[in-house]
């Protein structure tokens, strides 16, 4: 679908836990063909200290209702302000932006690894990939049990594994310490990941060593989101690429990791 | 019906609203959002003779009412422009202006000659004010003799409309404007970004990979307005104003201060439809003030 600048109606703003909120936005225009990894660039209103829009990955889409869901984690002033928005408010946004993850083939066995707000495109991918749930594993990492969002409505799409730095839920440690990653990686032929840079780099390096297909969704700072400011570039094997238009999803083979 | 047409040298523009170099790509990137033919002109991304990778990431820092960038003229070079981009945009019903950059006077001249071959590029914007490159760029624009030298050399090989983009990082911008006018510039555009810097207090490191970068956005508007007014009063050639223009009122203020046309830059990052809102806003302003020709606004400041 064509990229547009539009006022979306905020239908719901639900606090999931201390720092995570789920926003449901209704588009004034029909929505079509939205895939995991794509994002929306949202204006933060009534915040003079915030000049640029803030990009958020798509968590879910309802084409019938013309709605999109976002997972907003408070990371700074912009995300904080957005989580203070009320249902009924309009939110100006540029949508849809970016290229999605490569959807898996029917015969694939995939591992989805999400950290922080990077969980959003992983859950979206689990939901729409159309694979047998036995072939979909979702590994989610967070600092502590209280930082994890409730994924019970996604349980039917795959097997879920958790890691927390303090051991309060699932395995203690990082996602890369979880047995599903450290011991059983050979079970999978594709890895998809979105989350903190260090997490994705650790995953990407392992995938490269083991020669497993791996796509990562980068979060480089951007000003525009549609390829004109050239600020969000990633230094790839073929030169600087815009994370907003050439990505945000990249195959690790193309990166200098 | 209000008349929005303005002239820069002998070149007529359907309206005074152009998109600024480095903020609208080559037009194609914003074509989803707006009908490009409604623009007065499109100043495409800064072009160099050879491919440039630009500076390392991070290249951007959000600042109060603005941002710093340190892109460093990333572009695929003039051959790529002529072969792969120009054919797609040459028939747009708006003026395509190429922003020309070099590290040496010879490079500026050679690049200008290449662009001169393109029939549908009626003007160049000679960029002697990029703050984010090590060689050339702003170095040419901060002293009268070097600004004169590059304009003199380019003027010899270029008969179409020659606009020179000026740096605000100087003691007296009017002197630089007079210097380039004396060497045959048809117009000056100003201001390029102001040299700035951002520091991360937690890490004690600069935010930008290049330490310093160019500040743009509403934060610089008062400075840009002042400089447009000073330059307008110092030269006879038309002035193209820019610097933090976010809406029609901003654009009109620049015109009142002396700008014959304006460029919208950083605002496009926030909302690529802003240039069209500005054109509509100028029309309503003229209707409200019973102004028939937009030229009546230019330099109408009453002191």
Shape of chain B: globular
Domains of chain B (count): 1
The fold-level CATH name of the largest domain in chain A is: Rossmann fold
Radius of gyration of chain A: 17 Å
Kindly report the oligomeric state of this protein. Answer: heterodimer
- Return the string of H and E elements of chain B: EEEEEEHEHEHEHEEEEEHEHEHH
Give a brief outline of the structure.
The complex is a heterodimer of chains A (257) and B (303). Chain A is mainly β and 257 residues long.
For this entry, give a set of tags.
heterodimer; A: 257 residues; mainly beta; Elongation Factor Tu (Ef-tu), domain 3; Rossmann fold; 2 domains; seven-stranded mixed β-sheet; six-stranded antiparallel beta barrel; 35% strand; globular; B: 303 residues; alpha/beta; TIM Barrel; eight-stranded parallel barrel; four-stranded antiparallel β-sheet; 8 helices; 30% helix; 22% strand
Molecular structure report:
The complex is a heterodimer of chains A (257) and B (303). Chain A is mainly beta and 257 residues long. Chain A has 2 domains: 4-97, Beta Barrel (Elongation Factor Tu (Ef-tu), domain 3); 110-217, Nucleotide-binding domain of ferredoxin-NADP reductase (FNR) module (Rossmann fold). Chain A is 14% helix and 35% strand. In chain A, a hairpin with a 4-residue loop joins strand 4 and strand 5. The longest helix of chain A is centred in the C-terminal third of the chain and has 14 residues, at 197-210. The model of chain A has no long low-confidence stretch (mean pLDDT 96). Chain B is an alpha/beta fold and 303 residues long. Chain B has helices spanning 78-89, 105-116, 144-157, 173-182, 221-234, 248-256, 266-270, 274-288; strands spanning 6-8, 11-13, 17-19, 41-47, 60-63, 66-69, 95-100, 123-127, 161-165, 187-190, 194-197, 199-200, 205-206, 212-216, 239-241, 259-264. The A-B interface holds A 2-5, 43, 48-53, 92, 94, 220-224, 226-235, 239-240, 245 and B 22-25, 29-30, 32-33, 45, 53-54, 56-60, 62-67, 69, 71, 74, 217-218, 266, 268-273.
């Amino acid at each position: 679908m064509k990229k547009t600048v539009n006022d979306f109606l905020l239908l719901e703003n639900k606090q999931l836990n201390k720092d995570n909120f789920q926003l449901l936005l209704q588009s004034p225009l029909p929505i079509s063909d939205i895939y995991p990894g794509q994002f929306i660039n949202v204006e933060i209103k009534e915040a003079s200290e915030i000049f640029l829009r803030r990009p958020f990955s798509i968590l879910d889409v309802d084409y019938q209702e013309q709605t999109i869901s976002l997972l907003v984690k408070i990371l700074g002033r912009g995300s904080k302000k957005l989580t203070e928005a009320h249902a009924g408010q309009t939110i100006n946004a540029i949508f849809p932006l970016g290229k999605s993850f490569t959807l898996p083939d029917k015969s694939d066995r995939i591992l989805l690894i999400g950290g922080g707000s990077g969980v959003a495109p992983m859950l979206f991918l689990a939901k729409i990939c159309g694979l047998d749930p036995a072939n979909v594993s979702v590994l989610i990492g967070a600092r502590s049990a209280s930082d994890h969002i409730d994924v019970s409505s996604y349980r039917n799409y795959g097997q879920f594994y958790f890691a927390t730095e303090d051991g309060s839920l699932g395995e203690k440690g990082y996602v890369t310490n979880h047995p599903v990653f450290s011991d059983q990686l050979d079970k999978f032929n594709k890895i998809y990941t979105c989350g903190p840079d260090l997490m994705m780099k650790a995953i990407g390096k392992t995938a490269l060593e083991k020669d497993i297909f791996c796509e990562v969704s980068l979060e480089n700072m951007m000003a525009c989101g549609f390829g004109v400011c050239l600020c969000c570039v990633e230094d790839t094997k073929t030169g600087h690429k815009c994370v907003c238009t050439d990505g945000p999803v990249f195959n690790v083979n193309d990166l200098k990791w | 019906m209000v008349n929005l047409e303005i002239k820069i040298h002998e070149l007529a523009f359907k309206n005074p609203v152009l998109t600024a170099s480095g903020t609208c790509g080559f037009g194609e990137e914003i074509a989803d959002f707006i009908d490009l033919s409604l623009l007065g002109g499109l100043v495409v991304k800064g072009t160099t003779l050879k491919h440039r990778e630009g500076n390392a990431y991070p290249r951007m820092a959000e600042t109060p009412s603005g941002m710093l960038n340190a892109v460093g003229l990333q572009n695929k070079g003039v051959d790529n422009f002529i072969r792969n981009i120009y054919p797609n945009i040459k028939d747009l019903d708006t003026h395509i202006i190429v922003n020309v950059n070099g590290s040496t006077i010879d490079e500026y001249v050679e690049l200008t000659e290449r662009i001169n071959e393109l029939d549908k590029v009626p003007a160049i914007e000679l960029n002697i004010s990029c703050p984010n490159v090590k060689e050339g760029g702003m170095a040419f624009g901060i002293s009268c003799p070097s600004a004169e030298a590059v304009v003199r050399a380019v003027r010899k090989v270029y008969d179409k409309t020659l606009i020179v983009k000026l740096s605000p990082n100087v003691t007296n911008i009017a002197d630089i404007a007079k210097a380039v006018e004396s060497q045959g510039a048809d117009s000056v555009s100003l201001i390029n970004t102001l040299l700035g810097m951002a520091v991360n207090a937690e890490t004690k490191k600069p935010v930008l990979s290049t330490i310093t970068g160019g500040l743009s956005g509403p934060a610089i508007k008062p400075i840009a307005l002042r400089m447009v007014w000073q330059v307008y009063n110092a030269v006879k050639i038309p002035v193209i104003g820019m610097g933090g223009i976010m809406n029609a009122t901003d654009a009109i203020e620049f015109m009142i201060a002396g700008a014959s046309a304006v460029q919208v830059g950083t605002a496009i990052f926030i909302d690529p439809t802003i240039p069209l809102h500005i054109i509509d806003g100028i029309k309503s302003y003229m209707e409200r003030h019973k102004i028939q020709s937009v030229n009546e606004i230019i330099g109408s400041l009453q002191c």
